[in-house]
Amino acid sequence: MRAAIIIFIFITLCLISGQVLCFSVFGCTGGSLMFKCMYKNQSETDKQHKGKYFCRDESCKTGISTETQNRWVHNGRLALYDDENSRFFTVFIRNLSREDDGKYKCGNSQKWSHDVELVVNNEPHCGTSVIQDEYVGQTITVRCEYDHKFKTHTKVFYRMNGDPVHVMNSSRSSGSSEEKFILSDSDKDDFTVTIRDISAADDGVYLCGVERDRSDDRPSETSITHMTFFKEIHLNFYSQMTSVQVQAYSSKSVFITCTFPQEFKGNKKFIQKDSQQKILVNRQNQWEDRDNLHMFDDSSEGLLKVFLSDLTANDEGTYRCGVNINDDDLFTEVKLTVNPDDHFRALSNTSAIIGESVKLTCDFPEKHNETFKHFCKENKKKMCEGISSSEEKRFEFSVSSAGVFTVNIRDVSLRDAGVYWCGAETRHTHLTSVSLTNRHKLTPTMPPVVGREGGSSEIRCPYDEKYSTEVKHLCKGKCFTTDAQKIIQSDEAHVNKTRISVKKETELNVFTVTLSDLRAEDAGIYWCAVKDAFNLPTELMIVMKDVITREASVRGSASISCKSVRNLSSLQRSFCRGDQPNICVRDGVRVSSSMRTNGRFSLTDQTSAGVFTVNINNLTEEDSGKYWCAEESSGSLIFTEVHLNVTEETMSPDTEKSGFPVIVAVSVGLILLAVCLVLVLFKIKYNRKQGIISSSDRRREAGDHEVAQGEIQDSDPASTPLDSTVHLPTNPSDGLLYASVSFQKHEESLSDATAAFSKDEIHSDYASVKHSSTPN
């Protein structure tokens, strides 16, 4: 309402003056404004091209002026452009505020001017500013929201490349996909601008706005319009997507995956080290090799995979992992550091029995403890590929300690054969790097076959169905190598090989060889092979006919001497416990050439005599059982069976017979000693009793009555004498052991008299004293 009143008053004054042209322009807080200041007299030309200005109020202290043509002149938020070929000059005001609301003048400093009313309102969607980061070569879309009242107005899109530059407006956009800029006004209260194939030159600040006049209605064709801008978009376009530091290790490998926008998945990718020439990947979806550099352009995902193997210090440097875009490149910078390999495990060769599990140990730098752990399998091109999703359930990861994690592979099969790498994976926005630290060569094997000397054993060779028509081989040692000893092949007649028979089970894809009349030298590793593409090892263990038996006692010791079947200095001896030798040697080893002492077990190796001896101390009954003496050379195991029986020590009948008289004599002697001791004690007690009786007789003869009375008087000399009666036994032979004394207090007595006995003269064991007081 306020704005409408101001406009009405302003127009009225302009009409009254008649000498100047008055007009109004509208902006919004936080937005920008662009308008034209028209020449007053269209016929005048030369003189009007001097001293253009725009200022506030009559004083014109605040504003901008120029004598220059065809170039933008700036003064803070104000800019002015005088086009010599037009009948106007342009004024641009950026970042409006409510304080900018008011009266201004624009004109020629010599002859004419116009009064300008600038109205600044608070409007929805006005004053917004966004920053958008994009990469060269992409096609992007920006969105500009506006107030619904401008739905029918012409939308404009400008670029602030230092100066405001018109890009396009909705009335002139063809919408052709071939245009660089495409403006689309949607049914909603916004319009979008699509910029195709952006380059570094396209970055800058862009303005979204509408074309309007002094009313909110759509301007007519004859109206003098101006541009109200309500949104700024800061577009930053980069050739370098990111910069990543990658750590790798000497003699190891590193796997890098670079990600690019999907619109470039068909573009040619490249690798460039430092300032060297680019190495282009010429073919998609297949590996290309350049010495130790391997590249794979995955067109389906828009990825470039890079594998650097057998790293050295020369591989260190700065790489660009990029994609070509017309005359520009989009790339990720990779700063590769190759550290010395001073604490990682070397290549390990691991065998795993088909159908069982195997555990592989992997190192990773402790600083990568929070990163992802990586495990991959090397393909025929020596590249490391991730485990397929169908197999992931059989692979279990666990961190066992700092800097170490383990991978447990369950239900091992023939397809698991190969070389595996493990390491630490680090993920960034546009790049993933895997520093591979450990290499494991996994060889699936058939379960060991145990045969006894003189007996027979079957070696089964399963193969893939695709090899059903191929010739199968069985060798002692890896087939098709110089050290291999050929045993038999499927197309060979074996009639003359009396110890060998063959059975072909084509429906089961199994080739079976039976070895008869087994001997010690038959022990070893046998390989089933098809051409040079398939090799499967099976271990044949031989148990000798002779059996060692030992009897021993609990708490005693046992010494078991094992004779070597082969006289080789390289033999590894071991002693183990278990029902089966193949399980025993794996899980039950007690002592060996490399572990000669283990608790109660010890091993002494007498190489010159071809014997090794095992001693077991402090035996218990639980030590009874089956043991095996084993000798190994180059994977060839030969066993000798040992039976140990430990029992409690018992006495023989002769020992019991000879010991009986001794036991009887000792028993009789103890009994006699006890009897003598009892008699002595009896005698001592008897003598004591006799002494007591003699003493009592003497007291009676000397006048016991007087003695007793005297003793009573002596107990309290100051008191009145007490009457006392002592009754002595009439029969001395009764063996007096006690005395009974009765005291009566005289009625005239005033003292509390007591009776006292001398310990030296009292010999009775018990005394009973009764003290009766006579009533008054």
Structure in words:
- This protein has 776 residues and is mainly β.
- The protein is 11% helix and 47% strand.
- The chain has 4 helices and 53 strands.
- Strands 2, 5, 6, 7, 10, 12, 13, 16 and 17 form a 9-stranded mixed beta sheet that branches.
- β39 and β40 form a beta hairpin.
- The termini are far apart.
Present the secondary structure layout.
Elements (H helix, E strand, L loop, with lengths): L1 H16 L3 E8 L3 E7 L13 E5 L6 E4 L5 E4 L2 E5 L5 E6 L8 E7 L4 E9 L6 E8 L4 E6 L9 E7 L1 E7 L11 E5 L4 E6 L8 E9 L13 E13 L1 E10 L3 E7 L9 E5 L5 E2 L6 E4 L2 E6 L4 E6 L8 E9 L2 E12 L8 E6 L4 E6 L8 E7 L5 E3 L8 E7 L2 E6 L8 E10 L3 E15 L3 E4 L4 E6 L9 E5 L8 E5 L10 E6 L4 E6 L8 E7 L3 E20 L4 E6 L8 E6 L3 H7 L1 E4 L4 E2 L2 E6 L4 E6 L8 E9 L2 E12 L5 H49 L2 H12 L7 E5 L10 E8 L20 E8 L3
